[in-house]
Amino acid sequence: MSESGMSEDGANSFRLRVYYEDTDAAGIVYYANYLRYAERARTEIMRQLGFASSEIMARDGVALGVRRCTVDYQRPAKLDDELCVVTRVGNVGGASIDLRQTVSRDAETLVVMEIKLGCMTMDGRAARLPDAVRHAFEKLTEDEAKE
């Protein structure tokens, strides 16, 4: 069960289920797996905006990487839970994008992440975001501001 969608306010929701492989011996999601869930959600946003990561790397010679991540673990997820990762776009700069990603179960917030993505060349040097990518993310910021 993995599905993703963009809401009218510019937020993206990515749904997933917790599998046995995601948990520790007590059936609780291992803390690092939330980073994987957030990465999957970001990948799906890129796809929905029309920018598969592999295409950007091949066409523009750049990639988006996590520059900074702060995580607030509030409640644990457990085996078989249905989770939703909601991603909202904050500031979009010339070479970076700020995101807030929230993992929830039903209406209960489990984990909140503040992410800064940086654009880089394939050899790891800082680079400007491709114009089309920057404009697409700016549009999501504008949609959220209308709320």
Relevant terms:
alpha+beta; six-stranded antiparallel beta sheet; 6 strands; 3 helices; Thiol Ester Dehydrase, Chain A; 27% helix; globular; 147 residues
Could you characterize the architecture of this molecule?
There is one protein chain. By secondary structure, the protein is of the alpha+beta class. It has one domain (3-140): Roll (Thiol Ester Dehydrase, Chain A), CATH 3.10.129.10. Helices cover 27% and strands 39% of the residues. It is built from three helices and six strands, in the order ββααββββα. It has helices spanning 33-48, 53-60, 131-145; strands spanning 3-6, 12-17, 62-73, 82-92, 96-105, 108-121. A six-stranded antiparallel sheet has the order 1-2-4-5-6-3. A hairpin with a 3-residue loop joins β4 (82-92) and β5. The longest helix has 16 residues, at 33-48. The model has no long low-confidence stretch (mean pLDDT 92).
| Low-pLDDT regions | none
Strand content: 35-45%
Oligomer: single chain
Instruction: Give the count of structural domains.
Output: 1
Structure annotation, total helices: 3
Order of helices and strands: EEHHEEEEH
Global outline: globular
CATH architecture descriptor name: Roll
Strand order, sheet with most strands: 1-2-4-5-6-3
- Give me the Rg, rounded: 16 Å
What's the gist of this structure?
With 147 residues, this protein is an alpha+beta fold.
SSE topology sketch:
Elements: E1 3-6, E2 12-17, H1 33-48, H2 53-60, E3 62-73, E4 82-92, E5 96-105, E6 108-121, H3 131-145
Antiparallel strand pairs: 1-2, 2-4, 3-6, 4-5, 5-6
